[in-house]
Specification:
Blueprint (H helix, E strand, L loop, with lengths): L12 H16 L1 E3 L5 H20 L10 H23 L1 E3 H8 L5 H25 L2 H13 L6
Antiparallel strand pairs: 1-2
Helix pairs in contact: 1-5, 2-3
């Protein structure tokens, strides 16, 4: 007995994988919040002041430590990302919720997602193929360097 064919079986591999991913989207696709624009700067500046003030209270000032600003900036960035990532993970929306919220009864969003996935898969494959001819030589060079003791083991 033969299995019925789906319309995507004869399609390009990028279309086939896009179809498989969209089929899994009710379980696997999550929409998350992302803060953009001035919100990024506002929270970053808040943490820069916070870190600088806390370090100053403990005797670590820019006068005593010339590279302190780099430390402050790095930690402010890390703290900002911690906050925004935590908020994003705390409230996620699944595809059926988004479809309900937007009134997408015809699941047009899934079609748009499928199209975007297929297009990006094709673009990723194309970008890889632009470099593929040179990869064997690069791998040979890496292997030679490793054998000579000049590379990772």
């Amino acid at each position: 007995m033969t299995r019925p064919r789906t319309p995507f079986e004869d399609a390009a591999p990028s279309r086939q994988i896009a179809e498989r991913l969209v089929q899994r989207s009710p379980q696997d696709l999550v929409f998350v919040m992302r803060f953009l624009g001035e919100s990024q700067l506002l929270l970053y500046d808040h943490f820069r002041r916070f870190v600088a003030e806390e370090l100053a209270q403990r005797g670590a000032t820019r006068d005593r430590h010339p590279l302190l600003q780099l430390f402050i900036d790095a930690h402010a960035n890390e703290l900002r990302e911690f906050v925004f990532t935590g908020v994003s993970l705390a409230r996620q929306f699944r595809l059926p919720e988004i479809e309900t919220l937007t009134g997408d009864a015809e699941t047009m969003m899934r079609i748009d997602i499928w199209d975007a996935l297929a297009g990006h898969v094709e673009m990723a494959q194309w970008r890889f193929l632009q470099q593929a001819d040179g990869l064997p030589a690069q791998l040979d060079q890496m292997e030679a360097a490793r054998a000579a003791g000049n590379g990772p083991r």
